[in-house]
Design goal:
Strand content: 15-25%
Strand order of the largest sheet: 1-5-3-7-2
Distance between the termini: 28 Å
Structural class: alpha+beta
Helix content: 25-40%
CATH superfamily: q2cbj1_9rhob like domain
Largest sheet: 5 strands, antiparallel
Number of domains: 1
CATH topology: Jelly Rolls
């Protein structure tokens, strides 16, 4: 798909899978660096150092073109994080339930998968904008974390909507760019004893 087609696709769908955004070798290196945290080298410091060191590699021309066209101006990284989701995430991670983010209009998120979905099973599921709007009107995407659901299938069926979710087989180094304010989404908990490693950038208009 050409850059022009990718820009058009993203503007129409508000989500796109980007193949091989960074190399497998770099992904393995980042995971190894992350896991070397210690009392003298805490996780938050390690995460920030990793992101600052490699973010220039992430924001290549392809990503820049999509972002510049979407925002119609310059953009900036509002927040970034190195996230590790464990198999117990359903117990303590609100992202594993269906939700919408809330924040600055037109906010985007870029998830980079450092290990493949085929290994950990912790995929990201998305619902398109049209169905998301209908779910909002049905009060199926509450702001309160304790009211969120892990399964929207019964509600989708009740609304006579397609029950299929948008999901991709993300390989090492693949990325997902999407609008978390307009597309309902959730992170599946990884399989038993597995971890999902991702780097997330929250991007806003400058």
């Amino acid at each position: 798909m050409s850059i022009h087609n990718k820009i058009q696709f993203f503007n129409e769908n508000l989500s796109i899978k980007i193949n091989s955004l960074i190399s497998q070798e770099l992904c393995n290196k980042l995971i190894k660096q992350y896991e070397q945290f210690s009392c003298s080298n805490p996780i938050n410091v390690t995460s920030e150092r990793i992101i600052n060191e490699y973010k220039e590699i992430v924001f290549q021309e392809e990503i820049k073109s999509i972002l510049n066209n979407y925002f119609g101006s310059k953009y900036q990284i509002f927040w970034s994080s190195f996230d590790v989701v464990k198999s117990t995430a359903l117990e303590d991670n609100y992202s594993t339930l269906w939700h919408l983010d809330h924040g600055i209009p037109k906010t985007l998120k870029l998830f980079i998968y450092l290990n493949p979905v085929s290994q950990h099973g912790g995929n990201t599921l998305i619902i398109d904008k049209e169905r998301t709007e209908k779910l909002i009107h049905a009060n199926a995407l509450p702001l309160e974390q304790d009211k969120r659901k892990a399964d929207l299938t019964p509600i989708l069926e009740e609304l006579n909507l397609d029950t299929n979710y948008i999901e991709h087989n993300y390989k090492t180094g693949d990325a997902l760019l999407f609008n978390p304010l307009l597309l309902a989404h959730r992170c599946l908990p990884p399989d038993n004893a597995q971890k999902r490693y991702t780097i997330c950038f929250t991007i806003i208009k400058k």
